[in-house]
Amino acid sequence: AVNLASRLESLNKDHGTRILISEATRSQLTTPVPTRLIGDVKVKGKSQAVVVYEVTAGAPRREAGAARPAQHAPDGGRPAGVEGAGT
Known about the structure:
With 87 residues, this protein is α+β, with helices and mostly antiparallel strands. The chain has two helices and three strands; from the N terminus they run H-E-H-E-E. The radius of gyration is 16 Å and the shape is globular. Residues 68-87 have low confidence and may be disordered.
């Protein structure tokens, strides 16, 4: 399962998505979550294609290959745990 999650995570860049889940994960959700069918996707390590969905709740779409926005700390400084030169 961890290997499949890793494969799905790497597919986000190709599809311009932020969160992808398998049909197996979607069928186990206990709370309704808005999703969009991506389709059958062949992933490394699996003999059969996996049905994949994008989780669409609260996730603005990016164009495939678009850069992710920079992650900054709320105070406008460096992210927590990142030290700069001279600190």
